[in-house]
Specification:
Elements (H helix, E strand, L loop, with lengths): L29 H10 L14 E2 L11 H7 L10 H14 L3 E5 L2 H12 L5 E4 L4 H9 L3 E4 L20 H11 L4 E7 L12 H14 L3 E4 L3 H11 L8 H10 L3 E5 L9 E5 L2 H8 L1 H5 L10 H13 L3 H4 L1 H15 L12 E5 H4 L9 H13 L1 E2 L1 E3 L19 E5 L7 H16 L7 E5 L5 H4 L1 E4 L3 H13 L4
Helix pairs in contact: 1-16, 2-12, 3-12, 4-5, 6-7, 14-17, 16-17
Bound molecules: pyridoxal-5'-phosphate (PLP).
Amino acid sequence: MSNVTFLSGENIPLEMHRVCMVQRVNLLPVEKRLHSMREAGFNTFLLKNRDVFLDMLTDSGVNAMSENQYAAMMQANDSYAGSETFYRLEAVLQDIFQMKYFLPAHQGRACENIISKTLVKPGMVALMNYHFTTTRAHITVMGGSVEEIIGDEGLNVQSDSQFKGDVDIDKLNEAISRLGKEKIAFMRIEAGTNLIGGQPVSMNNMREVSRICRANGVPLVYDASLLADNLYFIKMRDAEYKNVDIKEITREIASLMDIVYFSGRKLGSARGGGIITSNEKLFFKMRELIPLYEGFLTYGGMSVREMEALAVGMQETMDIDVISQTPIFVEAMCNELLAQGIPVVTPPGGLGCHVDAKQFCSHIPQTQYPAGALAAALFIAGGVRCMERGTLSEMRNDDGSDRLAEMELIRLAIPKRVFTLSQIKYTVDRLTWLYRNRNLIGGLEFVEEPNVLRFFFGRLQPIGNWPDLLVERFRKDFGESL
Ligand SMILES: Cc1ncc(COP(=O)(O)O)c(C=O)c1O
């Protein structure tokens, strides 16, 4: 990140880019926002873009692309087999990760499908610092299960720990001796651990996990979807890496892993995904599944234009001025919210700002989905779309009861180089208003609940008429304001 000091002493997240292309957004009046929310079944995934003012649902596939990415798309070489575009992308990934083989896939979860089909057998356990929704779903579908072995600090909403995504080494050793290597499908480390607030994993921790996995013959899989943020935090928070080039840090991480996979919707700011490995045996096993589920080996479900954009985006990810933009905005937003007394995950992570709905809406029981309710309330209050990352995003227990999430969060994603500081300030303003009126927010209940990944399509309704009361209060406090 470029070192710029302000005369005022303020810590302002300065943009190291200029905006060349823009898209119009709409801010509907509060009554219409409530109407849209009702139509969306109080699920922010079901809102229509035309009704959303600031889309902080995710960074997936919506990071701003650079002029060089767009330019590269124009020289894509299309063919079913053997396209030049594929070989360009392969060469970039081989160079960055210093790994031998690349398998293309249409997105991150497609990689998870291939890896799970290759390594998970019924009854097996996949160990990981923390699960991601699609990861767990693919492992469970194969008859396996997930065991999380994150350090205790990782689940503390407010903490001083700089690497909350670290694996608990004692738990790893214990799990290996309890289960035995035959029962362990793989160990997975998720960079920039998503569901606990975009929290990084330290290099020391990865080194130790790798040493133990290699000594015990357990394959080590790295989910690099949020690698960009993790690289930034290693450079900023680990003195050993202060002067180490981002590419060198990436290569060191990759040298510790057996398989690296990623969502190109996140890493590389394009769309697509892929698996990289130097392990020949695993490569040949996984390769068989690519034509079956993804497409031929030289496109794997991706359009060649996206592959070109991904190749350039991956190279740009090695630039600290590019990858610092989201984390410094997340930090600025978290600090402003904290100044208003609003509970957020600390230290600020990558990916987005995470608000603790358990504290924010402490009057709503977890079985009434406080994070889902807060996400709906924020859209009504400000037209800002965020994502529930709490009990609603969990699967039910076998007995049909809700599995209560360890962390009940809303995530305000800050896609790379998309929002301005005034838009961040507006969001903080509406959240502050909501916090002062939090007692008006009530719970939600399902009216339509899918069995798998219910948070995507499920429809809910408010318990009571709290959304109307919220609109009434908004009009009272803000008058004619949108
Ligand atoms: C850590 C992590 N892994 C995997 C995925 C799945 O990637 P995709 O959405 O491209 O399928 C995501 C997406 O959000 C993610 O954040």
